Amino acid sequence: MQRKFLLLALAALGLSRAHAQTAPVRSMLVDFGVNDGTNGNSTPSPDANGSYWNNVLNNTGVADTFRLVDKANAATGVKVKVGANFLTNGIATGGLLAPSAALLGEYAIATATQDYFFVQGTGSTATGTLRFSGLDASKRYVFHVFGSRQTTAETRVSQYKFTGANVSTISQTTTGTNVGANSYAGNNNTISHSDTLTADAAGGISLELSKTTGSYAYLNLLRMDIVPGRATTAPAPVYYTFQNPGFELGSLAYWT
Hints:
mainly beta; 6-stranded antiparallel β-sheet; 256 residues; 34% strand; 9% helix; single chain; globular; 5-stranded mixed β-sheet
């Protein structure tokens, strides 16, 4: 009986040494706007921080689809489809032209903050939808959004609604007197973050842009994080004290 207990104890000690491993988070940076030199420019890659960007344009206004790379320029399999109702503007109409790294960190890239997608109006034209597809059901996703347009005409609040297997809705004040740091009449210092999301049954997450206060809603840029699935935690090591003379030296003479 004691021999059987010894073998079981040694097996438990070996199994308890297993450790769970987690893959790193992968991030994608997306610049929304135009590339006409007047209202906006595409963001070149790599940027000053060594990161690669995806430039999502609104050339046709309907169903533009873009394949996304991560910050290291590796393919991700993720695509974003631009739906109807988005309009574009930027440099000549209140885009953030001189972003501060002290306020925005890695997002302080002028070509990314200077132009934007926006929506306006009421009813069916008041919402624009982006559809992210090619997502992995075993992974989780977090979005970080930035919208900005400088004007003192009114305060404007944008709503970003993310819908996958679950829903996360966030709001951001993008425009208005003293909205930003240093009395800037637009957002120059705030990134808003979604809850952790999982893809829907079709392998996608939709982002709906709409306004909750004021006449317009804006989306200048976003970061999308791919978060690995939760790792299984290994059991804590189990230690046994054997009260048996000679065991430490490998002798089983006293075991019966």
